[in-house]
Amino acid sequence: MPQVTVDAVETVGDRTVALELRTPEGFDAEPGQFILIRATVDGVEETGYYTISSPDTTGTMEVTVEYVPEGTLAPWLAERRPGDTVAVEGPFGDVRYTGGGDAVVLAEGPGIGPAVGIAERARAAGHDASIVFWGQDPPHRDRLDALEADGASVVLVESLDEAADTLAAAGDATVYVFGFESFVRDAKTVAEAVGVDDLRAESFGPR
Fold first, then answer.
1. Residue 128: phi, psi to the nearest 5?
2. Is residue 186 part of a domain?
């Protein structure tokens, strides 16, 4: 399992940081896939899966880490500094965006990370991109503002029913969902109700 260097740690929201890591040699992944991070915290080995939130992994890659004070690995990662190292493994996961076609991404919590990575990749390739975030105070606000300025759509909702219009207008776009189990389940229900055919979801497990 390679040790990679931390290039930067940036606070991007409430109890949320973006962890920028130097990409190990031979590593290739797309936004939406995830890596395993392993570390020893207070004498105990801890592991966690974190989804890539950069539009690519050339040179460096980014993951978005949401943490709570009573957590173990996530708060430890939030305290890393440039020059520190962490062990990574991967990439894992079949949900990925490779730059082909329009994309609509539904996200909650740390799911905003892969959402912005996919949207940035789509816009760079000249495709339309829409992000629907469940909540009113998303992390990565600066990147979301930049995406909107570049022509992407960013919609904040209190209920996933409010995402129906965006999903109905998706057309040939691929719909991605990133969030915890209940969010993914509800997103699939709304998407199916409006006739979405191509939906790819990654669940972070129970909250």
1. -75, 150
2. yes
